Each structure stands twice: as structure tokens, then as C-alpha cells.
Amino acid sequence: MLDIQTQLFEGNDIRFGPIDHNMDPVIEASWTHDSDFMRMMDVTPARPMSAAMVKKQYEKLEKQMDENKNQYYFTIRAREDDRLIGKAVIQRIEWSNGNGFLRLGIGAAEDRCKGYGSQALQMLLRFGFAELNLFRLSAIVPEYNTVAIALLKKFGFVEEVRRRQSVERDGKRWDLLVFGLLSEEWQNSPEADLRQETA
Questions:
Q1: Residue of 78, 162, 154 whose CA lies nearest to 121
Q2: Of 41, 79, 152, 178, which has the fewest CB atoms closer than 10 Å, so is most exposed?
Q3: Using CA atoms, how far apart are residues 139 and 159, in angstroms rounded to an integer?
Q4: pTM over 0.85
Q5: What pLDDT, on the 0 to 100 scale, is given for residue 193?
Q6: Spatial distance between the Cα atoms of 80 and 138, rounded to a whole number of angstroms
């Protein structure tokens, strides 16, 4: 199990932080102009946004977190210079059943494929299972997001539901996959043994 001194929000190369309302909207707005990122992050239609629009989303998000108490949103920041590189979320938490859904994304193309996503998922699982005491975490991924699927499987997630041909992109239909991981499976997985290395 975790040592009480294990850092929840620090990894080797990244850390989790709060929203910076002055700097982050400009950076995240630039991500919305990257259709590859937008299509991997969500199945809703992609659209470019301004910094002002992103800032309004942040304000709405923080209000929802404060009122509903069923969502945790973290910015992912590079430890070397504290710049924003992504976001990590546990949402739709059902406290009575111990269930939650997670999402994460690395925004800029130059920051992808550097291991940041693995570190962020490792930290998010540690937070969800060890800090929030959730029983299970789920993730919803379109079939074409092969990088996310490989990452989830690496951490022990199991495909539980396949909604056939429920996403359309560029004239082709794709399945939408739901993956799940139980707390016990996380504790017994090889990846869980690495959780203190990111401290």
C-alpha cells in the first residue's frame, strides 16, 4: 500500500496543479485548433475556441465541482518549467457505489509520446483509488484512439462494453469502448508497484 509520505500530485516529469485563469486559457485554446487532439479527447464535434471561451468553461467547471462534489479536475504541468501540458479528470463520481470515470489528454503534439500520459494515468489512478477510496474507475474511448486503448490496457483496464458503430468520423463508423478497472486489480497490478517511483 501507499506510504503516508507518498506525493499524490508529483511525478518524475509532471505534476498535477490547479487552473491558472490568466495563462491556461490561451494555451488550451491553442489545443482546440488541433483537430487530432480534439477528436481523441472527445466524440463531440471539434471546434476551435478562443481564450475567452475556454476561460468561461473553466469558471463553469469550477462552479460545478463546488456545487456537485463529484468531479476532480487537475492541470498537468511539466515539472521543469511549470508549463501546462495537459489535463486529467475524475468525473461522474457515484459516492454511494464507489464508481467514477476518468479522462486525460496531453495537449500539444510536441508533448505527446514522451511518457507524460503514463505518468498522469498512474497518478490519477493512485488519487482515485488510494485517496478517494473509489472501488472502480471507467474510461470511454473511441475505437480509433489506439494510443489511449494501449495505455489503458497497460494499466490493467478491461474492455467491458462495446457500443457498436456509435461514433461517425469522416464517413466511417467506429465502436465506442468502455474500459473498467477495479481497486483490487490496480493494487495487484505490476503498474501499481511503480506508483512510488513517481513520487
A1: 154
A2: 79
A3: 9
A4: yes
A5: 52
A6: 31
- Closest Cα partner for 98 from 69, 132, 121? 132
Q: How far apart are CA 97 and CA 120, in angstroms?
A: 24
Cβ burial of 57 (10 Å; 0-12, 13-18, 19+) is middle
Q: What is the pLDDT of residue 85?
A: 96
CA 17 to chain centre: 13
- CA distances, 62 to each of 36, 51, 140, 165 (Å): 26, 17, 23, 34
Q: What is the pLDDT of residues 129-169, one digit of tens each?
A: 999 999 999 999 999 999 999 999 999 999 999 999 999 98
Q: Which residue has the cell 500539444?
A: 108
pLDDT in tens, 7-36: 789 999 999 999 999 999 999 999 999 988
Q: How far is CA 40 from CA 1, 45, 68, 149, 183, in A?
A: 33, 11, 27, 11, 26
Residue 67 has pLDDT above 90, yes or no: yes
